[in-house]
Write the structure tokens for this entry.
Amino acid sequence: MTKRDMKKLAEEVSVWLSSSEAQKQLDEAHEQAEKTSEYLREASRIDPDSLHKPFTV
Amino acid sequence: MAEIPPFEIYPYSITKLKEILLLKSKATREIVEDKLHCFYFEGYFSYLKAATIFVENRYIDRDFLDDFSKYYVRCFNDYERKCTRLHFFTLAFSEAEFDSLLKGEPCAIDETKLNDHYLGFTVIKPLPETIIGRTCLKTYDSDGDRRHYDSIIHKYDVNLFGVNLVIRSLAFQEQDHVVGACASSALWSVFYKTGFLFQHPKLSLVDITEAACSHIPLETRSIPNKGLTQTQMAHAIRSTGLEPFLVNASDQDILKQNLYAYINLGVPILMGVWLFDFSSGTPQYFGNHAIAITGYSLGYPNPIPFGSSGILLRSSRIDKIYAHDDQIGPFARMVLNQGNITINGNQHNTISTSWKWDKKPIGNVKAVSDIILIPLYNKVRIAFNTIQSLIIYFDRFIEVMRGKGFLSSGQRLEWDIRLTTINQFKNNISKLTCLTGDLKRSILLNRMPRFLWRATARCEETYVLDLLFDATDIEQGSFLIDVIGYEAKFITELLVISKDPKFDKNKPEWRILQWFARQ
């Protein structure tokens, strides 16, 4: 990647980040990631009642 | 009474094997015929083309001797303290030929040849029912990198009357019902490996049961043992100096993600399952069972998007797991995703097993994963959840940037998240052909912590980047310690993007992005 390409990319990113569309897309992405993370956190939580059930078979 | 010869050699057949099991133990024919292990041996030895059974009589097995000295020796009945060890070979040879080898006379077999054809051994305990003792059998091949148990197995040295043999496996044994139940057997296999990895003493079945019950006794007596609880299993792990990490694995995606993340370190994982008999059509619950997961199969050709973020995880390609199930055998195959059942109003995905229940045919029993218990070295402080969560945020950010055309990755990245050691990591880097020159050298010379979380991003099997996290750090710290870029253009684009000051520095993905911003 040339310096010129890098500068161009930086400018495009900067312009896009100033737009409301960027905010909306990044917020949406954050929300989806949060939902997945939250599900994983909850679903991997141990049920305290199961701690004392023996494995007997 | 005829003297027992030191060894006997027979051509392999399942009938002969059952005959030997019957003769060398105190079990009845009915018990031997009904043993699931025999069904397992039949399939396994037929696939690996076993040709010879070598019977090593009057074998002293350290593990059985421990149990014997702590329990059986005090019984009124006379129990034998010596066992029989059976070795299996794919090479046909006779007693006369082995005799010639012992005498140093010219013969058709030698140490190298025997090693090349060695399939491993099983110890027969002189007991009336639970007769399968320490067993180390060769694993199936990797089937083009589909089956993975390489990190779990290790080298066992076997000495057969002066002939040195080597087998790469993980020790297995059937539960004893007396000094230990299924959980003790599963823990025994796990400790065999962790003992090598983390230098703790090896525990026998009776040691494990005693350690598990020492602080949290069962309501009833602990030996004879009818089973351990999750808490007691955790306590047994602590007794070795390791830390138990317990995860609810009733969701099979969580099971796959966690087992993939931890098992590659080389530590077998304990899994608790509920067993259901489906022979009548309606699932009938018949108990909780504990096994040791010892491998997995990456059977799906493509990753399956997970959750609302749609992240692609390499672990989602797992279609089967392999487990030391004391009632079946070592590396027993369990197929995931075998249909749903409803338990207490919740849907659960089932796993096929080779179990049979109540004299019904094999194939009617399915398992539902409940928990996994991972024995970890105490310095591994950052949990998988923390790393996976960060990657989920970062991956979504990458997707937005890719969608806008700011990042040049052709396809969505596939994430391979695993716990590793500095030695495993550097060994892997040294073998990577896509990395050369000064960058490779500097990575190999870089000082790193002993335990690392490694998140590798690939695009259509091509390495794109590696994120390395210090697994021994604290969660509040900046535990991303290094990034390795394999795709120069992609990395340069990320470096440029991350330098924009408008990014919200309170977002989780910034914990990764800030590394790029600082460069």
